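Retry 2 of 3 after timeout on previous attempt. Resubmitting structure tokens to design endpoint.
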């Protein structure tokens, strides 16, 4: 009985619990749902087209997805791109079940961790085996993501040690490449770009055709403003795996940075062929159209200033919708394009406002200071924020300092109390010993 209970507990631990099955074959869908429930899943939902599956992914709390590649309304390819484009869903295990995945589409699946292909027709045992393997892999990532974060904290202090630690973690992982790529991505997001590039080059030394590493290297170079080099790596990745909507859209944005709107339009149009509702590609296409029109229109304004204005407008919309990280990136693009001090002061102010709404007070303060400096009295909206945030930061710093001082004082008091207690105990022991030494001897009379 105990052995059976132990095996059941292990099965539950190794098996996904909240599953969404997205397949338009209703009979197969029903059979898969029953199989999963019989083998340890607590909850299994069904969707019968890609759009319904997408809505359920956004609204649900699933720890596993089973996805058919040939879906009505929204294709499996488009749905997979959407899922992997959302940070919250990036690491969720996805088991693609289909007999119709093209070779180049299969390369797309290989770009992401916790993703496998199970070709139809399949038997029950293979479905269960792949489900357990994917769930165990995802659990490893969940346990070790915190370790990657801890290693990130040492990058600036000792980059060589951090890289050694990351390589050790990669060697331990069930699927090494995705772990290394996750680490490189975290480095890029933390602005440790050069260290990320070193790690990516190490991956490419082992596997020159590793599409995710090539693609991430392009993103790093884009972050550094090395747009032509970035485009070379992104094109190389796209040639090997041409179905990644996020990468295609990024290529369009790099073309915009190079003021090549016609090339950008081609890229955004490619992305929209895969997913016609992709917001990033649709917005990019509108920007490319507008930029192309502006470049053919006689104007006294420098084209990059005009483009910066467009980036600023995009960022405003993103900030209003709560997408602060993307908004800040767009604002900063606009900031680097603008030459005039007053215009750049306005953009710097918008960056500060986005950071403030994001809850990042220190970054917000720095950008408001930049805005005030560039405004030079002509644009003064930032001045009040500078004063207000300076007071908040001072108060926070004072509170932090007071807390630290209180902790030091408490430790000192505890140390002094312990010392006094030790001294008192020692005195007491010495007094007791002295009393024993001075006590008169007991005289015993001999019996008569």
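Retry 2 succeeded. Sequence:
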């Amino acid at each position: 009985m105990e052995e059976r209970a132990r095996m059941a507990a292990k099965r539950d631990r190794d098996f996904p619990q909240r599953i969404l099955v997205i397949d338009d074959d209703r009979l197969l869908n029903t059979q898969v749902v029953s199989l999963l429930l019989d083998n340890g899943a607590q909850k299994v939902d069904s969707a019968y087209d890609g759009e319904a599956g997408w809505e359920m992914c956004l609204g649900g709390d699933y720890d596993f997805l089973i996805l058919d590649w040939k879906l009505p309304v929204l294709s499996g390819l488009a749905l997979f791109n959407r899922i992997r484009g959302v940070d919250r869903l990036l690491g969720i295990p996805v088991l693609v079940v289909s007999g119709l995945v093209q070779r180049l589409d299969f390369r797309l699946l290989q770009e992401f961790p916790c993703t496998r292909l199970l070709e139809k027709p399949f038997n029950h045992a293979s479905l269960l085996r792949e489900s357990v393997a994917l769930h165990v892999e995802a659990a490893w990532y969940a346990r070790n993501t915190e370790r990657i974060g801890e290693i990130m904290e040492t990058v600036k202090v000792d980059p060589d040690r951090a890289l050694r630690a990351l390589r050790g973690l990669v060697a331990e992982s069930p699927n090494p490449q995705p772990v290394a790529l996750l680490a490189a991505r975290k480095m890029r997001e933390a602005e440790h770009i050069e260290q990320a590039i070193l790690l990516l080059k190490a991956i490419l030394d082992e596997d020159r055709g590793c599409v995710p590493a090539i693609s991430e290297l392009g993103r790093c170079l884009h972050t550094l403003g090395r747009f032509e080099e970035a485009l070379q790596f992104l094109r190389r990745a796209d040639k090997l795996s041409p179905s990644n909507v996020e990468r295609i859209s990024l290529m369009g944005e790099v073309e915009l940075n190079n003021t090549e709107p016609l090339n950008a339009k081609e890229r955004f149009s490619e992305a929209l062929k895969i997913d016609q509702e992709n917001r990033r590609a649709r917005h990019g296409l509108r920007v490319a159209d507008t930029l192309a029109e502006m470049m053919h229109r006689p104007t006294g304004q420098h084209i990059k200033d005009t483009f910066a204005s467009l980036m600023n407008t995009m960022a405003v919309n993103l900030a209003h919708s709560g997408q602060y990280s993307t908004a800040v990136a767009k604002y900063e693009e606009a900031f680097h394009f603008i030459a005039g001090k007053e215009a750049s002061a306005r953009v710097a102010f918008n960056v500060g406002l986005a950071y403030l709404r994001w809850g990042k007070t220190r970054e917000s303060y720095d950008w408001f200071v930049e805005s005030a400096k560039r405004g030079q009295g002509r644009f003064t909206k930032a001045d009040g924020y500078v004063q207000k945030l300076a007071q908040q930061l001072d108060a926070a710093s004072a509170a932090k300092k007071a807390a630290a001082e209180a902790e030091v004082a408490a430790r000192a008091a505890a140390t002094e109390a312990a010392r006094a207690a030790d001294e008192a105990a020692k005195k007491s022991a010495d007094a007791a010993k002295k009393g024993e030494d001075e006590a008169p001897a007991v005289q015993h009379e001999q019996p008569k």
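Attempt log closed. Residues 16 and 412 are 51 Å apart (CA to CA).
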